[in-house]
């Protein structure tokens, strides 16, 4: 059992110590010297993949944190930024925004400010698609583990919740009700729970299959 607990806690021991300090330093340097407007893409629509990580999508502006060690790398993000700070972007710019397993890495207050910024920078009628780990799915661990193989990696509900809330630099936890409340409060309308590869804008349906088992899919529109 000790080894089981050590394996569960390993991501936290790494990411919540040294890495936190590195992100803060990179954020300060990035905002001071490398903050920029999003680049133009040769596409009919302005689409943003915010929090892209290592997944760069065609036809999207792939945006991620200031990974300064990749500044001159071919696989660096198209647009480097700190999502906890105001976006350097014009009003009414994006037709669609995708955030997949990104919101849980920042505080609730930072999420509120970020979603306000996205609302400002999206065109009227634009669609936002958010994919996050779903607290409600985790709370169904005892039933889901019987049919969802990946959910059975945890040996108890407390361990599943611990992973959701403590590991991988997670700073906030979400379900549909809370995300809907925040989206609505900043102005988004027609907010609805969707599912894997289903939604209002076909261009945004590029969901990562590896995340499906634990994810909430939610969309909203900016007012016309």
Q: How would you describe this structure in keywords?
A:
single chain; 224 residues; alpha/beta; Rossmann fold; 7-stranded mixed sheet; globular
Output the CATH class name. Answer: Alpha Beta
Number of domains: 1
The named CATH superfamily:
Vaccinia Virus protein VP39
Main beta sheet: 7 strands, mixed
Do you know the CATH architecture? 3-Layer(aba) Sandwich
| Mean pLDDT across all amino acids | 91
User: What is the number of beta strands?
Assistant: 7
The coarse overall form would be globular
Q: How does this model look, in words?
A:
This protein has 224 residues and is an alpha/beta fold. It has one domain (2-35, 46-221): Vaccinia Virus protein VP39 (Rossmann fold). It is 33% helix and 19% strand. It is built from seven helices and seven strands, in the order H-H-E-E-E-E-H-E-H-H-H-H-E-E. Strands 3-2-1-4-5-7-6 form a seven-stranded mixed beta sheet. Helix 1 (2-15) runs parallel beside helix 6.
């Amino acid at each position: 059992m000790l080894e089981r607990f050590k394996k569960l806690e390993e991501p936290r021991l790494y990411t919540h110590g040294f890495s936190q300090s590195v992100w803060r330093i990179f954020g300060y340097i990035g905002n001071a010297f490398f903050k920029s407007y999003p680049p133009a893409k040769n596409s009919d629509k302005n689409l943003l993949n915010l929090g892209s990580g290592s997944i760069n999508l065609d036809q999207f502006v792939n945006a991620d944190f200031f990974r300064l060690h990749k500044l001159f790398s071919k696989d660096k993000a198209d647009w480097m930024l700190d999502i906890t700070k105001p976006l350097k972007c014009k009003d009414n710019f994006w037709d669609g925004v995708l955030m997949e397993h990104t919101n849980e890495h920042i505080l609730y207050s930072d999420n509120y400010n970020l979603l306000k910024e996205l609302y400002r920078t999206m065109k009227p009628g634009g669609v936002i698609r958010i994919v996050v780990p779903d607290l409600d799915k985790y709370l169904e661990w005892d039933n889901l583990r019987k049919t969802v193989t990946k959910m059975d990696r945890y040996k108890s509900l407390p361990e599943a919740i611990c992973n959701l809330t403590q590991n991988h630099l997670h700073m906030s936890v979400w379900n549909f009700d809370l995300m809907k409340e925040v989206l609505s409060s900043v102005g988004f309308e027609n907010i609805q729970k969707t599912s894997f590869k289903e939604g209002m804008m076909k261009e945004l349906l590029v969901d990562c299959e590896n995340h499906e088992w634990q994810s909430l899919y939610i969309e909203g529109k900016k007012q016309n």
